[in-house]
Specification:
β2, α22 and β3 form a beta-alpha-beta unit. Helices cover 65% and strands 4% of the residues. The N and C termini lie far apart (62 Å). The strands form two sheets. A three-stranded antiparallel beta sheet has the order 1-6-5. The protein has four domains: 32 residues; 203 residues, Clc chloride channel; 209 residues, Clc chloride channel (Orthogonal Bundle); 132 residues, CBS-domain (Roll), CATH 3.10.580. The relative contact order is 0.10. It is mainly α. It contains 25 helices and six strands.
Amino acid sequence: MTAPTANGAETREERPRSRLRRLAVLGLLQLRGRIRASELWLVVIAAGVGAAAGVATLSVSIGAHHLQIMLYELSAHQRLSAVPALAPAQLAILPIGGLLLGLVTWLWVKRRPRPIVDPVEANALRGGRMSAKDSLFVGLQSVISNGFGASVGLEAAYAQLGGAIASLTGNTLNLRRSDLRTFVGAGAGAGIAAAFGAPLTGAFYAFEIIIGSYTVANIAPVVAAALAGALVTRLLRIDPMVIHSAVTDTLSLSHYLVFAALGLVAALFGVGVMRAVAWTEKTASRLPGPAWARPAIGGVMLAAIAWSAPQTLSAGHGAMHLDFGADLAVGVLTFLILTKTAASVVALGFGFRGGLFFASLYLGSLLGRLFILALYAAGLDIGIDPMAGALVGMGAVAVAIIGGPFTMSFLVLETTGDFGLTAATLTASIVASVLVRETFGYSFSTWRLHLRGETIRSAHDVGWLRTLTAGRMMRAGADTSPAAAALETFRRRFPLGSTRRVLALDADGCYAGIIPVAAVYADHGAPGAGEGPVGRFAIHQAQWLTPEMTIKEIMGHFDRTESDELAVLDEAGRPLGIVSEAYATRRYAEELEKARRDLVGGE
């Protein structure tokens, strides 16, 4: 008698739980419906995502800084790149960190061998879908790399975690593809906004770099998320990067021409840095020994650089503030540019995780200052404060490497409050952006994807093109006939009007062309018309499609062959189905119209 009572009690306990689960599911379904139907709800949820991204950003930043404090015995407010010198024992920290990172990464890759998707790739190819586990691991890698002193920034982790939070939220709420992409951009932008305390910078980072477009449909969620991310920084009383500018003179036309020339120099420098990273990665991959040892080798090289130039350590926040207040000669600026560039290239090329966002800002400030001083040394009285060159160069080099002219211009505005410098930065940034796109074609993030075999050049949504494959669009079950079949046998099997075309097969059952039925009947009744195999009417014997071909490749085949239909074959050459040009064109037009509606916010 005890067991039924126990079972009855257990059932009574489970009933409230099941009701709560049903209520939770119903509540989530209602929330999904409201969010999909109301832009206001999207803005509210985006603000929440932005706040969460801000918390994630500050957690990563504080974690990496505390690791540096512990390893290098820094004070609470001291930055690693601002230390005057390192003890010999401290230099060993870099290769130890590289070894730790290499082992952790090796263990992770054994479990999850596929490449980690960043926000740019997610929005360009995957409709905004990101992995939460992979993104957390990127955060861990970045904390280890930056915390042990490698010359990489944390901004890649900020954007990765912010985008992953947004992607997870959007998937839970079953958002549309366009809304999910907007959310990923909003989350990544909120992470940047929190890092710099600069909401406009974060918002335009989302528009220009993560989403790839600025539209009426995405402005409200992105701005709300960026504001929320920056507000988290203010509420937690974290000091953002602020640069006090002493440049107040009115800029003339000649000054803008000088800054345009600085943009040209920044473009050449940025392309050189990106190519150097790629060359170093390629060289490091050819070194003997296991892959997990490469970051340790890189750590040894970084320690050698840091021995003579401690400012190359970490991202460079402390070094930037230190150098802005110092009177640096041309030789010192040149030395710092060379050593910081070498350290960043070695760190990324040998497997440390991070980005070039802040490193490009620091290098740009040095390059811009060097450029103005070099003009003065050449006897040109240009009337520009070297500090102005530093600030404009900061934006121009960052645009050349990272992209986003408005992003970097607003960063200068929000960190200096100087509108004149912002206009000058925009001038140099546009020149740098145009030259890099014309001569190189990639930003740092898309360049690394290109090295992996991808062809994207921005975060514009091209993933839908890859879903329109021949395998998805083909009409299976096409009629077939042996190419050796007699004409009369073929005509009895396929009367005129029963079908337009038949796929011819050879003796092994493989594709041998397309037989237009009308052509078989065109000379019916003429002398000798019933003689010979039907295969003599086959066309397009050497033209076919494979299931994985995208719409772009399919339309190219139709243009080259001037055909109305093409067969889809498997690896063995056996037909799977057939695709018509009319259907492929219609599906392409439908997806283009859908993309246009997403762009303008239509339903």
